[in-house]
Design brief:
Helix content: 40-55%
Bound molecules: adenine
Structural class: alpha/beta
Number of domains: 2
Shape: elongated
Largest sheet: 5 strands, parallel
Strand order of the largest sheet: 2-1-6-5-7
Strand content: 15-25%
Radius of gyration: 23 Å
Distance between the termini: 47 Å
Number of helices: 11
Order of helices and strands: EHHEEEHEHEHEHHHEEHHH
CATH architecture of the largest domain: 3-Layer(aba) Sandwich
């Protein structure tokens, strides 16, 4: 399999080391499951001061990233992906104005062969660059970060985890919970009593069917109390009679959300 090709436009290329050097994504990068090339718009500035930003037309605070250096950089990224045989690499711009990231979007993006990420800084990017070059604008949540790099890394991490072979058997199991549209159940490890708090009895019973039922009930109950929006979606997709019964029982036991 060819590596999943990531090209990232960023003023701070070293930040991306966080995904290539650590943990599960670090292992996937070393195993050439994905590759990550950075392009610094500063290297494509048209002046000796390497300027890439200017003040906004119409006034107001801060600076705006100029279209030209970004467009020159993206041309290089696109040529590189073309050489890899990726004819229409999708361009993703990370910004709070984008569509909010979901697991479904992550899955869809992971099915392609490569992506180009554009990380903005300052007040944003000249809109003409976005109109000309960007296919999708994505937000990772309703809050403002200091730049798109951390958001791009969130997306790359989530995408890489979906590529077959990245997760070992023991790691992929813990994905099941979001995939079934529910929050994860609580986890416990040794010791059995920690500062007076016991591990739930059922988990040390050795009865696998009871454990599975308890975990499903915890997942349903937590989703009901913490993420009613997710539970609504789950209900609209249909819950089994068993799931309905477990949730009703959880509600009876807990009463308030
Ligand atoms: N850049 C700044 N804030 C962001 C956010 N919430 N999501 C994606 N990119 C961003």
């Amino acid at each position: 399999m060819k590596p999943f090709a990531c090209d990232v436009l960023t003023l701070f290329p070293e930040m991306l080391n966080a995904v290539t050097q650590y943990g599960i994504t670090g292992r996937a990068w070393k195993n050439r499951i994905f590759e990550l090339i950075t392009w610094n718009p500063r290297d494509f500035s048209n002046n000796s001061h390497r300027t890439i930003d200017d003040s906004p037309y119409g006034g107001g605070p801060g600076m705006v990233m100029m279209a030209e250096p970004l467009e020159e950089a993206i041309m290089q990224a696109k040529s590189r992906q073309h050489e890899l045989g990726i004819i229409h690499p999708e361009v993703v711009y990370l910004s709070p104005q984008g569509k909010k990231l979901t697991h479904a979007m992550v899955k869809e993006l992971s099915l392609g062969s490569g992506l180009i990420f554009v990380c903005g800084r300052y007040e944003g990017v000249d809109e003409r660059f976005i109109v000309r070059q960007v296919d999708r604008e994505i937000s990772i949540g309703d809050y403002v970060l200091s730049g798109g790099e951390i958001a791009a890394m969130v997306l790359i991490d989530a995408i890489v985890r979906q590529i077959p072979g990245v997760l070992g058997d023991s790691e992929s199991a813990n994905q099941d919970s979001f995939v079934n549209g529910l929050l994860d159940y609580p986890h416990y490890t040794r010791p059995e009593i920690y500062r007076g708090e016991h591990v739930p009895e059922v988990l040390i019973s050795g009865n696998h069917a009871h454990i599975q039922r308890w975990r499903l009930q915890q997942s349903l109950g937590r989703t009901w109390s913490r993420r009613p929006d997710l539970l609504e979606t789950k209900i609209s997709h249909g819950m089994t009679v068993e799931e309905q019964k477990l949730l009703e029982e959880y509600k009876q036991l807990h009463k308030t959300r």
